Every structure is written in C-alpha cells, then in structure tokens.
C-alpha cells in the first residue's frame, strides 16, 4: 500500500499552519510544519516532501528566495501562499519556478483541489511512457509524433501553434506565464510581445473547438498566462 503524500507547510503564521494541518490531515496527508525559511529548507532536504506549501512573506527570508534556493536542487511541486494579490507578484512566483499560487484568505476546498492537481501532474510526469501523450477521448496529443487530433481527425497546426500547445501540455495543470511562453516559443527578444501569443492561442482554440468563455482545455489566467486543463471525463 502506498504511503499518503507528505506535504511541507512553510509559514510563519501559527494560525495558518494549524488551519492547514487540520485540513490536510483530514484529507489523509502527512504534514510537516516549518515556521521559518531555514527550518523549511532543512525539512525539504531531509524529509523529501511530495509537495511544499510556501508563504511568500516569511519572517526570516522572502519566500521568493526560499523558492530559488529550493529549485537549485529539487523539482518538488511548490504552491505559493500570499496576501499579495498583484498580478506582478503571481507572475514573479510562477516564473521563478512555483507551480501554483493562492491568495490569502483562501478556501480549504479550493486549496485541496489545487494540491490534488499538482500531485496528479507529478505522478504523470514520473511515468515516462505517459508523458509524451494526452488523450481524454476527444482531444489526443502525441508529442513524440507531433500529432494533434480532435475526435480522431488530424488537426493541422502551424509551428508556433504546436510549440505553444506542446509547452502547455508538458506543464498540464500548471500556469505557464506569458513571458515564459514568449521566451521559449518566440525568443528572449519577444517577451513583451503578448499580442503574438494572444493571436496564436486564439487560433489554437478555433482549431480545437475550445470555447474561451467555457474552456475545455485552454484556460486563460488573466494577466498571468495560460493553463492546460487536464480532463478526467
């Protein structure tokens, strides 16, 4: 029987740690707690958590610094917490390697759903034979063959359309920021040319039959970037 996932909470607010500890344990998770960046990094290195919940505003160090240090030796999924709701803060965290971002105050059910998605994505990424493909019964994407099909029919995509879709699929369930997409698909000199990205995503939606008002696969995160939604039905 597999052990329940281990979640490390790094937050200097005792009430938040207590709230998360109760909620996580009720859902069957193992919980590690740290009140400081130093303690959190030590636990991350020695206890190998399956996921980290990291507060941006720690008392001893900025959460961004902790994330940068963690990313030097670990790719563990990291969900950032913050009272800062500015889009620039979210973009900064996601560009630095965070997998998701939740603003305080938050609902425990939304947080749990995000944790489940991050852990599911990590499990899929660890299975090499499933990584190159996505198939929900309607949309099929084979990254090894560079083929995209809707209802079994091959969908012709331009080079840029395919590159954007492939990058989103490889990060399925996670937000990919506009600067990251522009940098990797168009190059570093185009990180501010967001109109290119909007045009390509619009064409992708048309070809896939994806409604931007009620997206099935390509979800816009306003002011931040895009997320490929993993469908289970």
Short recap of the structure:
40% of the residues lie in helices and 21% in strands. It has helices at 14-26, 37-47, 63-70, 87-95, 108-125, 159-170, 178-185, 194-208, and strands at residues 6-10, 30-34, 51-55, 78-82, 100-103, 133-135, 139-142, 147-150, 153-154, 175-177, 218-221, 225-228. The protein has a five-stranded parallel beta sheet, sandwiched between helices. A four-stranded antiparallel beta sheet has the order 6-7-8-9, with no helix packed on it.
Corresponding CATH superfamily of the largest domain: Response regulator
CATH class descriptor of the largest domain: Alpha Beta
Major beta sheet, strand line-up = 2-1-3-4-5
Low-confidence stretches: 126-131
Q: Distance N terminus to C terminus?
A: 26 Å
Mean pLDDT: 86
The domain count comes to 2
Helical content band:
40-55%
Largest sheet: 5 strands, parallel
SSE string: EHEHEHEHEHEEEEHEHHEE
Report Rg.
18 Å
CATH architecture of the largest domain: 3-Layer(aba) Sandwich
Gross morphology: globular
Number of helices: 8
- Helix/strand class: alpha/beta
How many β-strand stretches?
12
Percent strand: 15-25%
Kindly report the CATH topology of the largest domain. Rossmann fold
SSE diagram, text form:
Blueprint: E1 6-10, H1 14-26, E2 30-34, H2 37-47, E3 51-55, H3 63-70, E4 78-82, H4 87-95, E5 100-103, H5 108-125, E6 133-135, E7 139-142, E8 147-150, E9 153-154, H6 159-170, E10 175-177, H7 178-185, H8 194-208, E11 218-221, E12 225-228
Parallel strand pairs: 1-2, 1-3, 3-4, 4-5
Antiparallel strand pairs: 6-7, 7-8, 8-9, 10-12, 11-12
Helix pairs in contact: 6-8
């Amino acid at each position: 029987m597999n052990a329940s996932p281990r979640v490390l909470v790094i937050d200097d607010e005792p009430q938040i740690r207590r709230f998360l500890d109760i909620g996580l344990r009720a859902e069957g998770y193992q919980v590690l707690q740290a009140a400081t960046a130093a303690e959190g990094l030590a636990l991350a290195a020695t206890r190998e958590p399956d996921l980290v919940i990291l507060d941006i505003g720690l008392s001893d160090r900025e959460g961004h610094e902790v994330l940068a240090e963690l990313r030097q030796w670990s790719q563990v999924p990291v969900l950032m917490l913050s009272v800062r709701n500015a889009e620039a803060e979210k973009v900064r965290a996601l560009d630095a390697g965070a997998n998701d971002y939740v603003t305080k105050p938050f609902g425990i059910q939304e947080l749990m759903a995000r944790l489940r998605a991050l852990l599911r994505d990590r499990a899929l990424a660890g299975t090499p034979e499933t990584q190159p493909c996505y198939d929900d019964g309607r949309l099929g994407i084979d990254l090894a063959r560079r083929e995209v099909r809707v209802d079994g029919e091959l969908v012709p995509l331009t080079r840029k359309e395919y590159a954007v879709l492939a990058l989103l699929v490889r990060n399925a369930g996670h937000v990919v920021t506009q600067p990251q997409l522009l940098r990797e698909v168009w190059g570093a000199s185009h990180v501010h040319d967001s109109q290119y990205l909007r045009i390509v995503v619009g064409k992708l939606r048309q070809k896939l039959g994806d409604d931007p008002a009620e997206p099935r696969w390509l979800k816009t995160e306003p002011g931040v970037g895009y997320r490929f939604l993993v469908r289970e039905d």
